[in-house]
Amino acid sequence: MRLVELSRSEHRELRIRGDRVEASAAHQHLIPIVVGEFRKAATQYPIVFAKHPETGRFAPYVLSGLGVAENLFWSGTELDVAYVPLNVRRQPFYVRMDDAPDASAANVLCIDLDHPCLDPSGTRTIVNADGSDSAYLKEILAILGELVAGRTATEQFIAALLSLDLLAPIMLDIVLEDATPLQLQGLYGLDEERFRQLDAAQIASLWQSGYLDLIYAVMIASGQIFKLIRLKNQRIALSRAWQGNAS
Amino acid sequence: MERPIRSICIVGGGTAGWLTAAIIAARHASRSGCGLEITLVESESIGIIGVGEGTWPTMRSTLKKVGISETDFFRECNASFKHGAKFARWVTGQASDFYYHPLMLPEGFPSLDLAPYWMKYSEAQRDAPSFSNAVCFQEAVCELGLAPKLITTPEYAGVANYAYHLDAGRFAGFIREHCVRKLGIRHVVDDVTEVISSDTGAIDSVQTRKSGRLGADLFIDASGFRSLLLGETMGVPFVDRSDVLFIDRALAVQVPHDHEQSDIVPYTVSTAQKHGWIWDIGLQSRRGVGYVYSSNHTTAEAALAELRAYVGDKHRDLQPREIRIACGHRQVFWKGNCVAVGLAGGFLEPLEASALVLIELSADMISTMLPATREAMPIVAERYNKITQYRWDRIIDFLKLHYILSRRTDSAFWIDNREPKSIPDSLQEQLELWRYRTPGDQDFTSNCEMFPAASYQYVLYGMGFRTDTRHQAFDSDIGGAKRAFAQNETLKARWTKTLPKNRDLIDKIKTLGLQKI
């Protein structure tokens, strides 16, 4: 990764291949999301929580694989799924958060010059012929805006969950069709038992802050684990068939 | 008529008093309505000794149980992580002479005992790794100055088993805050002027200068070396154990770090000297260093010179504090309605950080064994005394082991320490067993043991003790042993690469905090 500040003049010639954007997630089993995405994400993936390796802070993720660096939705050319998280769609652009007292001035738009979607054969550019922002860049800016705005809301939601002891480690006790046990560690989910013990005042406060919707989205999304298991078993069956053919 | 136990009065506001208060309150005070009333009297005029700066891993469960956050503990107590102890110059006295007593059990222990395999291996190969390095990954982690966990590891959990180094003064204050604010303990700051006994010989109350008489059903003596209640009032004599352990003086000094970001050594260093040994404990802001020695073998001036040589010329202006210590304990620990914890019960040199753990164990026992009525108290007292005496004896055995395995001949201190008459029979018997068989859990049959067989292995084989395993009956499982040695190498490779520096993790914990889950 080579992040540099995006310059509309210096980078005007850059060409971006939209079909390669999703490739960056081909080996991601966890993709970070913000609370604004929970509803859509819940229709496709389990939503889990994990700690940032550098800070130990919790963040929400969609679970897209059952092994480290495995994305079961990756078809080889694209993510075969009805909702692709903002953190994938914004590639190869990033927002660098500088340590400045004025947060709004501290957000710097950057581009990853090492990203595989930067290619002369690409059709997308960041500026139009007249130098104005392209529709593509405007779309990217909207996505990044959503991510930046969602960051604080997401942190607040996590803090609320922690203060009510609503997060608990997930024990994935799944044996796949080829009898391999799963080894995913460090995932956390909602402690539903604890949630059911909350009193009316606590529930009312969750409802007022809009967190109740998010909690239900996470709970409903937990059933998506069965989709991942199905996809994983399909992969196993495919590779078996392939090996059968080969021998 | 039965007399229920409703109130406890603790005399003494050092670590022993406050830690005991917290442990008992966490268990009893939550029983709504019928909870115990706990009062702690802290003297206005007497300071705390604060010698205990190293803990056992038990402190993690103790703090968790009393409801303290590990993050707060690191923020308030100048605390750091401890993987175990490194003993330098204990065997030959050479500069290259050292071994580790890590806090993790050897790989596979106790279902698999690697010691006899290591013994054979190290006989066959001159450059074989040390025992602790062959069976445990902590020595490698220690040598790199790494912490025992990651920022993602929850509070009180560890990648490696760990304990703490802490600032005893700050720790007492920290626990006090928690006791007063969260656990509802009554805090009386006043001097005890008189202890009033009833005609049955029990303690009725303590008279204070300004706060009147404080009565209670049970009195806990945490008054330090003075042993005001158990020793002075109840007349329980002190049992001197200096026939086994010779150390009777400590010279303690606080050494500042070279700079704010100096590495913090993640283990206790104990360096043998001519007439004793020097402890070196890394805290966030300083090191606690002290020379414990035998005044029968050297003079205060000579000891001071040895300590100065250790801390270096740079710190020659530091003024060490001298503490006179008497090695031993009270003849009983619980008499009538009075039980002593901490220094009031006794003292041993801090070679294996036994002071704080004994407080935890005592408080736990008082808390769980606490009888419902005064009538049942003698039964509990007798059991408590038996267990506590057993624990002191086992610690004394284990401390003595370090001395008798030394081959140092540079002073009468070391030579006298190997005099057979100074070695307890219980320890001599064990050593006779271990000449031909490696220590195992079968050699430690009480459920109140202090040190596991693994600790004996680390010290014995770390100090070059040889067990002749030719006649040892064990289920030979060479495949299993090879796998365990290989597993240790795998863990060593993984964790030496992944664990952060001790200082870096502590800084991170202070700014970001650890998660509770």
Plain-language structure description:
The complex is a heterodimer of chains A (247) and B (517). Chain A has 247 residues and is an alpha+beta fold. Helices cover 36% and strands 14% of the residues of chain A. Chain A has helices spanning 38-42, 86-89, 103-106, 135-163, 192-196, 200-208, 211-221, 225-246; strands at 3-5, 30-32, 47-51, 58-63, 93-97, 107-112, 167-169, 188-190. A 3-stranded antiparallel β-sheet of chain A has the order 1-6-5. Chain B has 517 residues and is an alpha+beta fold. Among the domains of chain B are: 7-53 and 167-240 and 328-389, FAD/NAD(P)-binding domain (3-Layer(bba) Sandwich); 249-324, Alpha-Beta Plaits. In chain B, a hairpin with a 5-residue loop joins strand 8 and strand 9 (203-208).
List the helices and strands and how they pair.
The complex is a heterodimer of chains A (247) and B (517).
Chain A: E1 3-5, E2 30-32, H1 38-42, E3 47-51, E4 58-63, H2 86-89, E5 93-97, H3 103-106, E6 107-112, H4 135-163, E7 167-169, E8 188-190, H5 192-196, H6 200-208, H7 211-221, H8 225-246
Antiparallel strand pairs in A: 1-6, 2-4, 3-4, 5-6, 7-8
Chain B: E1 7-11, H1 15-28, E2 37-42, H2 58-65, H3 70-76, E3 80-82, E4 84-88, E5 98-102, H4 115-124, H5 131-135, H6 138-143, E6 163-165, H7 168-181, E7 186-189, E8 192-197, E9 203-208, E10 213-215, E11 218-221, H8 228-233, E12 238-240, E13 249-256, E14 268-272, E15 276-282, E16 286-293, H9 300-311, E17 321-324, E18 328-330, E19 334-335, E20 338-340, E21 346-347, H10 354-369, H11 377-404, H12 412-417, H13 425-434, H14 453-462, H15 478-498, H16 502-512
Parallel strand pairs in B: 1-2, 1-11, 2-7, 4-14, 11-20
Antiparallel strand pairs in B: 3-6, 4-5, 8-9, 9-10, 12-18, 13-16, 13-17, 14-15, 15-16, 18-21, 19-20
